[in-house]
C-alpha cells in the first residue's frame, strides 16, 4: 500500500546528509616551527653557533672597512701555526693550486687573510709571498673595529 499526500503524489522521505568536517589550518604547530627557525637564524647571525675552522682573535683597526660581496676565499692563520683555506687544513705549498682551482675564469677572487693577533709576523709574510708570487693581487686582512 502506497501513501499519498493530499495532492495525490507519493510522499518523499528526506534523509539528513552527514555533516562533513571543514578543513582547518592548525596554526599553533606552524607558529612553533616559525619560532624555531627564527631562533636558529638569530643564533647563527650572532655567531653563537661556532663557525667551522680555527678560532682566531682578530687584531683591531680603527679604519677597518666592510668588503663588498664577491667570491671570497678565506685563509685562516691560527696562533698555533695551523693554516686553513675555507675551514680545511692546507699546507703553504698547496695554497696557490687550491686557490687557482677555486677561481673561475673572468672573475676576480678576493682573498681574505684571517690571522690571529698572536700569529708570528713571519708566517703572515710567508703566506703573502706565496699569494703574490702566484699572481693573486686582491688580498685583504680581516680585522675587527676598535
UniProtKB/TrEMBL annotation:
Compartment(s): Cell membrane
Pfam family, one: ExbD
Entry coiled-coil feature ranges: none
InterPro entries membership: ExbD
Membrane topology, from the record: Single-pass membrane protein; Single-pass type II membrane protein
Keywords from the named record: Cell membrane, Membrane, Protein transport, Transmembrane, Transmembrane helix, Transport
Gene3D superfamilies: 3.30.420.270
Entry keyword Cell membrane: yes
PANTHER family on file: EXBD MEMBRANE COMPONENT OF PMF-DRIVEN MACROMOLECULE IMPORT SYSTEM
Sequence similarity: Belongs to the ExbD/TolR family.
Protein name: ExbD/TolR family protein
Amino acid at each position: 500500500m502506497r501513501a499519498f499526500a493530499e495532492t495525490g503524489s507519493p510522499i518523499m522521505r528526506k534523509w539528513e546528509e552527514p555533516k562533513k568536517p571543514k578543513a582547518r589550518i592548525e596554526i599553533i604547530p606552524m607558529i612553533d616551527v616559525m619560532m624555531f627557525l627564527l631562533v636558529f637564524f638569530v643564533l647563527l647571525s650572532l655567531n653563537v653557533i661556532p663557525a667551522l675552522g680555527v678560532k682566531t682573535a682578530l687584531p683591531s683597526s680603527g679604519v677597518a672597512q666592510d668588503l663588498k660581496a664577491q667570491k671570497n676565499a678565506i685563509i685562516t692563520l691560527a696562533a698555533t701555526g695551523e693554516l686553513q683555506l675555507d675551514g680545511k687544513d692546507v699546507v703553504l705549498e698547496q695554497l696557490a693550486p687550491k686557490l687557482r682551482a677555486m677561481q673561475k675564469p673572468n672573475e676576480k677572487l678576493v682573498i681574505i687573510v684571517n690571522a690571529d693577533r698572536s700569529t708570528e709576523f713571519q708566517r703572515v709574510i710567508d703566506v703573502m709571498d706565496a699569494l703574490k708570487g702566484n699572481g693573486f693581487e686582491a688580498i685583504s686582512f680581516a680585522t675587527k673595529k676598535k
